[in-house]
Every structure is written in C-alpha cells, then in structure tokens.
Write a structure and sequence with these properties.
By secondary structure, this protein is mainly alpha-helical. Helix content is 60%, strand content 3%.
Length: 298
Amino acid sequence: MRREEFLEDWRAHLVNDRRRSPHTVRAYVAAAGRFLDHRDLADWGALAALEGPDIRRFLAERRSDGLSNASIARELSAIKSFVAFARQQTSGSDGTRPRIRGPRIKKGLPRPITPDDAENVAALVEGLGREDWIGARDRAVLLLLYGAGLRIAEALSLDGAAAELDDTLSVTGKGGKQRIVPILPIVREAVAEYVRLCPWPLAKDEPLFRGAKGGPLNQGMVQKAMANARKALGLPSTATPHALRHSFATHLLGAGADLRSLQELLGHASLGSTQIYTKVDSATLLDTYRNAHPRERD
C-alpha cells in the first residue's frame, strides 16, 4: 500500500468522520506522513501492529530536530490517533490507541485583558481601518470574541445568515459541536453596522466577514488589526484576539457565572478546560489586592 493511499484515507476520516478543522487535518496528516517516512508498510494491519517502542523511536527522531515538549505532545497525539484508525481498519480490532505517555507540559494560565482595554481595542481598530467598512468589520469580529466568547475561527466561519443577529447565535465549534451563545446589544449593533457598510453582497450561504477584495476574511488580518491596536494602546504581546475569549470567560466567572454554564458558553468538551479560569480569576484578584491595599503599597 502506497504512502499516499494511507494519507488520503486518513485525511478523509478526519474530514468526514471526525469533522476536524482544516488546521487540525493539515497537522495530523503531516504528522502521519512523517511517521510513514522510511517505513515500508504493506497494509493497515502492518501499521496497526506498531506499538510504543516504534512510536518512541519516531519521537526521539523528532526531538533531535529540536521540537519542544508541547510540539512532541501534539505529534504524539496525532500518531496515536493514526494508529488507532489503522486498528479500526483491521478485522476484529476495536481501534484502541497505543499506550504511551507523552512529555509533561506545564500549562500556562491564559492572559486576559481588562474590560476597559477590550472596549478600547474594539474602538481603536474601527478607527485604524483603511476604509470605514473594514474598521467596522474588525470591530464586529473582535466584539464577537469578547462579547460572545467565540474562537476566532468560529467568528470567521459565520455566513450571511448571521447578518441579522438575534438575541442568541448558534455556533459550530470544534468537532462539529454546536452551542447557543447569547448576543449582547453592542455586538448586534457592531455586526449590523458592518453589514450596512460592507460593499460586498452577503448571501446566506457565503462568508459573513470579507477581506478587502471580497474573499473570506482570514485570521491573519484580524491578528494584524489587533496587533496595531495593541501597540497603539501599549498593551502586552499577550493581548491577542484569543485573549479576548479568555477575557470573556474570566470576567464572567468574576461576575458570578458557574463553571458548568461557562463550559457550555465556551464549547469546552471537558470541564477541566474551563476550570483553569478559576486560577486566572484568583490571580487577578490577588493582583488587584496587591495594587490597591495600603499595606501592600507601603
């Protein structure tokens, strides 16, 4: 069986069965391709028979290329899924993943920005746009991240059917999982203003947010707009578009939202992913205390 056949079947599985994002598909197929290099495998059964030692040798090769623990962990996750898929193709196999532990990774806390900074960023990108409609577009996208907790890919995947927002919005997140998020009036108004100014027709089955030439808006342009506003406001490099989603979660938690509700709003598959914001909120409170308490300033 040729290398390309393995990879094409794997890509089709990720897209059609697992409904992974284009970014994940590219990364997982590339990792599988590297794993198959220098291996002469006759069929899915030969791949399914590989165990921990085979994968460890591959990871050792990748580490010699200078990969960090985080990159090694991502590579391992892709290869374990690939081998599990191979086992599903083998008669009588249950598709179990190889039992091999990855490197330990120290998780950093998300870096939210303050509500005032979030509002200032949204206002500033509007003024920095080289055309009025582009400024309105950038403001609408960033407010969807901060005001509704969307991932940047989720905001950019919206189509023209979302041009007239209601009080809630149905969002398709990772793994094709759908959730309902409430939409604040300021977000609705920002999207409506963009729609009013946009020079391109916004059909219901076409992208809502457009680039300067009318094509789908890409993440790089949103990141560039955020970077320009960040520099103008003197914010740290951690003030990225994704930090707005972190800020949404942290500020809601600080206002009394419970973890289960926050998990649903963020579209997290596991509560553990949401619990990290309890640490962020505690850290924020501690910083506030240290900056404000008279004895701390003596």
